[in-house]
Design goal:
Largest sheet of chain B: 6 strands, mixed
Distance between the termini of chain A: 36 Å
Number of helices of chain B: 0
Structural class of chain A: mainly beta
Order of helices and strands of chain A: EEEEEEEEEEE
Strand content of chain A: over 45%
Number of strands of chain A: 11
Helix content of chain A: under 10%
Shape of chain B: globular
Radius of gyration of chain A: 13 Å
Strand content of chain B: over 45%
Distance between the termini of chain B: 37 Å
Shape of chain A: globular
Radius of gyration of chain B: 13 Å
Oligomer: heterodimer
Structural class of chain B: mainly beta
Largest interface: A-B, 27 and 24 residues
Number of strands of chain B: 11
């Protein structure tokens, strides 16, 4: 299957700082990338959908100024958690897709963020 | 009503057992359906897509009932390695690109 690489796999940061997470599709062009968040024992919650070259579409309740998403190329999307707080500690996962209905989404390995 | 609802878990079964997971979805416009498997602290991985005609992959059988907005996954002859959380996943839009995940059902297979 296709490969999506997410970096870093884990990060610990101080409250108030910003953290950038990268998501790369290594062997295909991802027209669409998705960012999810998963709290312990909870399901993945879609945060936003990003299409290359355009602004991300955020799900209801997700602050776009806090979770900055950039999808500058067909192989790279970044999520920046700005002014992180302990309640932002979570497992963040990206996924990438090259097509429409029925197309499998490939997931990155996830980033475990801990804000102290 | 939640968008994707799954059987509450956990399911604890012995090796060799047959186990069935059920899932219902609320968005009748959904076009694509999947079962993903997620191991602890890992990313989800596609187990199988689900088609209207039903489909089988080895010990795994998936069924879709569009009229009832119901999806199922049957696992036969359970193995220890089947222990994981199984996620029912439905497309959020007609383009089928954004996915909505159920909370998942945890399966534990013991010897």
């Amino acid at each position: 299957g296709a490969v999506v690489s997410q970096h870093p796999s884990w990060v610990i940061c101080k409250s108030g700082t910003s953290v950038k997470i990268e998501c790369r599709s290594l062997d295909f062009q991802a027209t669409t990338m998705f960012w999810y968040r998963q709290f312990p024992k909870q399901s993945l919650m879609l945060m936003a959908t990003s299409n290359e070259g355009s602004k991300a579409t955020y799900e209801q309740g997700v602050e776009k100024d806090k979770f900055l998403i950039n999808h500058a190329s067909l192989t790279l999307s970044t999520l920046t958690v700005t002014s992180a707080h302990p309640e932002d500690s979570s497992f963040y996962i990206c996924s990438a897709s090259w097509g429409g209905a029925g197309t499998e989404a490939f997931f990155g390995q996830g980033t475990r963020l801990t804000v102290v | 009503r939640k968008e994707v609802e799954q059987d509450p878990g956990p399911f604890n079964v012995p090796e060799g057992a047959t186990v069935a997971f059920n899932c219902t979805y609320s968005n009748s416009a959904s076009q694509s359906f999947f079962w993903y498997r997620q191991d602890c602290r890992k990313e989800p991985k596609l187990l199988m897509s689900v088609y209207s005609s039903g489909n089988e992959d080895g010990r795994f059988t998936a069924q879709l009932n569009r009229a009832s907005q119901y999806i199922s996954l049957l696992i036969r002859d359970s193995k220890l390695s089947d222990s994981a959380t199984y996620l029912c996943v439905v497309s959020a839009n007609q383009a089928g690109t954004a996915l909505i995940f159920g909370k998942g059902t945890t399966l534990s297979v013991s010897s």
